[in-house]
Amino acid sequence: MLELSRITAGYDRRAPVIRDVSLTVADGEAVGLLGPSGCGKSTLARVAALLHRPEAGTVRLAGETVRGYRFRAPRALRTSVGVVFQQPRLAADPRLTLRELIVEPAAATGRSRELAGRAAELAEATGLGASLLRRRPHEVSDGQLQRACVARALLLSPTLLVCDEMTAMLDASTTAALVAVVEEYRRQHDAALLAVGHDRVLLRRWCDRVTEFPTAEG
Amino acid sequence: MTGPGPAGLNGETTNDTTSGRERHMGEAPAVLTVRGLSVRFLMPGGREVAAVNDVSFDLAPGECLALVGESGCGKSVLASALLGLLPANARTRGTAHLRRPAPTPDAADDGVELLAASEETLTRRVRGRLAGLVPQSPAAHLTPVRSVRSQLEETVRELTGTPRAALRAAAEAAAARAAFPADHLDRYPHQLSGGLAQRATTALALVADAPLLIADEPTTGLDRDLVDRTVGELRRHADAGHALLVITHDLAAAERIADRVAVMYAGRLVEVAPAQDFFGTAGPRHPYAHGLLEALPERSFTPIPGLPPELDALPAGCAFADRCHLATDRCATSPTLSDGVACHHAPERADA
Ligand code: SF4
């Protein structure tokens, strides 16, 4: 599903955050990437989600070699990856209601009408009721907002999910609930997962295998 | 109960919160005594959000109480209320008395009623002096353009009136108390790792030897090694005699640091228990607390079904009823916290 080979990436050419890192996620596989904060695992997650162009190395996604990142990535490739970040407040447009937030990826492609039913299903799966869906980010808790961000990430039925510290801000029950939503989705869609985090117990419980960062596998 | 708590209220609440900590009873009067604390936010359009409801607890010197619950349960609002940091649309009820426990140079000090204190009293006597805050995001709490040394010296000068010539030594002593390395004192906040930034803000909180320390989500986003170190350091400050209130959603951190655990749900304390009972074989007694602990990946990893009620539409009865597998008709009336738990069907205490 995802092949990262010998990736070097960062925000300053002279001091890359990650150097020569390789990692593979097979179709339908759940891989946990474990490492301390500041080790560059989030940068690798952004590369895997086609949000950050590496300085060296190749990314292959669903059999295709990736040539463009962010808006330069072909739409079909871009939408085959769903992403959830640690801090929902940084990842959510404060002007949108939660309902609008969930359908945001469809609105960008003019498919919001077509996907309205799917959005409603995902809202239900993540436990968001009608009154919460009418609210804006500042009117809900971090946990409620992260539920909406998970629903948003699943809207376009991605074949790979990248979850970067998805539950670091959340209590135990919300963590278990959102992991269950992701796992139910993966079961139905045979989707693969790259879960990045620092909680060994959580990643071991969640993923098929857990690899330590920096990794030299592949 | 010894201290000068508000008259007439002590008798009703002693059982609730002190049951597991007999060694503190009669030994040292509480540093913090909270009784019937409620916070409401008045929203546009007449909406009222009941963020904290009728919370009572005590905190003794040398004791660590972990206040646990999910985001939005009211635990951070409670901390803000204690520090006088609520926004203008907040209305509070109840009392929260904070007092320096040991005989001090001004032995006549009988403390401050936090909820009634003026902004001037809060600035002059409370913040930093009687209550130190270890904030949630240390980086945001430090001034970016000044070195750690300069921020520490200024805080020492403001809070303790140390003469200029002695500031350098006093700032270095404050850094040492928080295990902040002396050779990093001339660095700027952006040059510090997350762990060192945390120690820098802890050093600031400790400058005036405040009897109460409040740590707001001190371990969020830290990896395990750093959690261990942060927890160890905070615990050391409690052992040195500070009363420590840790606000967290991280049950693993709570288990390692706390003497007592207070679980908050929908603005209420639903269980207050000795940490060793709560995390040990006795286990939690409130169904919500039980579900929260069972949701951990090292336990059954099963979420509690449903979501908490909205704080502007709390049910008349138990706020947990529509998620609770033990709920009966009795739960249509709101249970009060008694003998450490607020539930009509909670099991007896293991040692009762
Ligand atoms: S009072 Fe009733 S509904 Fe509430 S927690 Fe106890 S059993 Fe459940």
TrEMBL record, chain A:
Domain ABC transporter: start-end pairs: 2-218
Domain of life: Bacteria
SMART domains for this protein: AAA
GO molecular function: ATP binding; ATP hydrolysis activity
PROSITE patterns, A to Z: ABC_TRANSPORTER_2
TM region positions: none
Keyword Chaperone: no
GO biological process, one term: transmembrane transport
InterPro entries listed in its UniProt record: AAA+_ATPase, ABC_transp_ATP-bind, ABC_transporter-like_ATP-bd, P-loop_NTPase
Keywords, sorted A to Z: ATP-binding, Nucleotide-binding, Transport
Pfam families: ABC_tran
Keyword match Kinase: no
Membership in a protein family: Belongs to the ABC transporter superfamily.
Protein name, per record: ATP-binding cassette domain-containing protein
Classification lineage: Bacteria, Bacillati, Actinomycetota, Actinomycetes, Kitasatosporales
